[in-house]
Design goal:
Strand content: 5-15%
Distance between the termini: 49 Å
Helix content: 40-55%
Largest sheet: 8 strands, mixed
Oligomer: single chain
Structural class: alpha/beta
Bound molecules: pyridoxal-5'-phosphate
Length: about 375
Amino acid sequence: MLQPRATRLVGESAFEVLARAQALEREGRSIVRLEIGQPDFPTPEHICDAGIAAIRAGKTGYGPSNGIPELREAIAAHAGAKRGLDFDAANVVVAPGAKPTLFYAINALAGEGDEVIYPDPGFPMYASLIRHSGARPVPLPLLERNGFRFDVEQFRSLVSARTRLIIINSPQNPTGGVLAREDLEAIAEAARTHDLRVLADEIYIDFTYDGGFETIASLPGMRERTLIVDGFSKSYAMTGWRLGYAILPSDLVRTFDLYSVNIVSCATTFGQYAALAALQGTQQPLHDMVAEFRRRRDFLVAALNELPGVGCVTPGGAFYAFPNIRETGFEAPELARRLLEEAGVAALSGTAFGDAGHGYLRLSYANSLDNLGEAVERMRAFLTR
Ligand code: PLP
């Protein structure tokens, strides 16, 4: 018999659609792949070279459970410079991806009888991990009319005596929305008043197109309340390397380190040397990639808005478009399924990201302009049959 908590975990539909798209491709079908949230760029060469050199230099054994000291120093400096804050390497824990740090945070801070507020639509692992912890997930709706920001009054109404943790993600998966300073201020105020922690998933920090980035950790009193989660997957096209990190309030460092020792021992040692090269080497590949994503965003959003029954707000960040498809007459899960099976376009139903995703699709524009154009033409042909 499984423990109830194990039965409360759910999967990530991007990986299910990916498997189905690959199966169709094996049958010889042409599928435009807009389902998966990973850059379609290779890991920059100097980063690969550093990883290979580290293997050759014998960096293939266990390392410190919280990460090699050089990398933690580099993360503190780099992540601090990007956010205008002064971080200490002692507060950095490196992990095999950002995902494990989400698990550590939620598991450590929430349990039976607690509530955790999280964005809806949002990264599916939040609700899954909250349920696994025994706490009650409290969805905070993100509103299309607000550019997929939340309503501050509604947020305030969701904070209760049982709230332990607030999860925010900006720029956001799946909507591409970016929170404004007033949103962060409302959350910070609630956190200070009710003595709450904030888990700030900042993995898309480098992908903002219309303005700068602001972390909630920079607001008064928030450094000691905020757990920043970031990683190498998106910014350096390193999803398969499995490297992420958390920057933590001092009182949580030991706990995260213990989770690391108990579950993973450490992140891949030679990979950490590659990550060091990512931070210390040229940032040009990142800048070029973000510029290309911006071109794609502008193209895709304009093209989607020409489709019958489709309306798409311009996402301020990440690399996802979240078009409203209500007026096509389709429910989102059916449209996503039929676009894949009949039109050869792999997209995700907004419902894969929570109840507030009804009426939307998520399209990842981590694909070439040509393929994005092809996807939109296939969608047009399907919708105008
Ligand atoms: N957080 C968000 C919002 C994401 O979209 C993703 C990946 O899709 C992750 C975390 C996980 O990233 P990692 O590859 O570092 O585990």
